[in-house]
Amino acid sequence: MNTGESVIEVSRLRRRYGPAGAAGFDAVREISFDVRRGELFALLGTNGAGKTSTVELLEGLAPPTGGRVRVFGRDPYGERAVVRPRIGVMLQEGGFPSGLTAAETATMWAGCTTGARPVGEALELVGLDGRRDVRVKQLSGGERRRLDLALALLGRPEVLFLDEPTTGLDPQARHLTWELVRELRDGGTTVVLTTHYLEEAEALADRLAIMSEGRIAAEGTPGEVIAGRPSRIRFAMPPGWFVGDLPPLAELGVLRHSELPGAGGQVELRTRELQRTLTGLLLWARETGVELEGLDARTASLEEAFLAIAGAGSAREEADA
Ligand SMILES: Nc1ncnc2c1ncn2[C@@H]1O[C@H](COP(=O)(O)OP(=O)(O)OP(=O)(O)O)[C@@H](O)[C@H]1O
């Protein structure tokens, strides 16, 4: 359903807290990206990277300090009355009176929503139809998250903002939420997701951006973001054999190798040419009759890419470059 048309356009966006000068803080530093209609776009980053500060600008909750944001071609802050009815926002902890039931909460929220879908339908979408008469305070944490999602869906939004939608959900409820989000996306809803679960981004996102210190450090499809990271090969050398016995590693395309401490001759190789390195290694093993125990080869995961890009693993990964 991605039509190529941009529904969110962000250009050199800035957000600063506090006064100009050293006393203030630049949380969002000239970031640019587009989100296309029908696409699921994930915003990732470590704590404090600037995700919430960015999303709040997209939702029209605050004006940017600089740059430009457009949703449906409109200014979400200056033209909030036009933009707000077309977006759905799943808040972290909706903050509703906990004495109300799930259905009463949704009914109250529907009263503030233009063209709201029936409350029963919204609760059914998130699998809470059987819990409609339960008070919010008696819902589990995961059920409350799903109620937050039901409220965001009441207005049949064209653009849905999901902030950590599966935090506190058990694996089954998480997968149900993923299915629902996919169905919404397949039905044409544009979704902007912030999450700390990298497997969630990998499972759902058409494209993603990784924020670090207020900037976008990487952007693209999950495959594109991962592609730049080296793959990993692990095995154990049999007794009496050493890394120095392997063919020249640089000729096999190995960027870096390490011998894992205390792990019985475990060797780890990093390569951007997995097939070439692996072929060379296996040919050598056949020629010498060596058994590479526990041989394991894998392409980088989004988590590895994230750790490298967002900084936590930067020093080590820079050595690969
Ligand atoms: N109202 C505020 N006043 C001053 N600084 C703020 C304010 N809100 C956020 N910040 C700072 O801006 C930076 C970005 O915060 P933000 O909440 O956008 O990050 P985030 O990526 O959403 O983090 P998290 O994953 O922890 O939710 C942080 O350093 C934070 O301390």
From TrEMBL:
<keyword id="KW-0547">Nucleotide-binding</keyword>
<dbReference type="InterPro" id="IPR050763">
    <property type="entry name" value="ABC_transporter_ATP-binding"/>
</dbReference>
<dbReference type="GO" id="GO:0005524">
    <property type="term" value="F:ATP binding"/>
</dbReference>
<keyword id="KW-0067">ATP-binding</keyword>
<feature type="domain" description="ABC transporter">
    <location>
        <begin position="8"/>
        <end position="238"/>
    </location>
</feature>
<dbReference type="InterPro" id="IPR003439">
    <property type="entry name" value="ABC_transporter-like_ATP-bd"/>
</dbReference>
<keyword id="KW-0813">Transport</keyword>
<dbReference type="InterPro" id="IPR003593">
    <property type="entry name" value="AAA+_ATPase"/>
</dbReference>
<dbReference type="InterPro" id="IPR027417">
    <property type="entry name" value="P-loop_NTPase"/>
</dbReference>
<dbReference type="InterPro" id="IPR017871">
    <property type="entry name" value="ABC_transporter-like_CS"/>
</dbReference>
<dbReference type="Pfam" id="PF00005">
    <property type="entry name" value="ABC_tran"/>
</dbReference>
<keyword id="KW-0046">Antibiotic resistance</keyword>
<protein>
    <submittedName>
        <fullName>ABC transporter ATP-binding protein</fullName>
    </submittedName>
</protein>
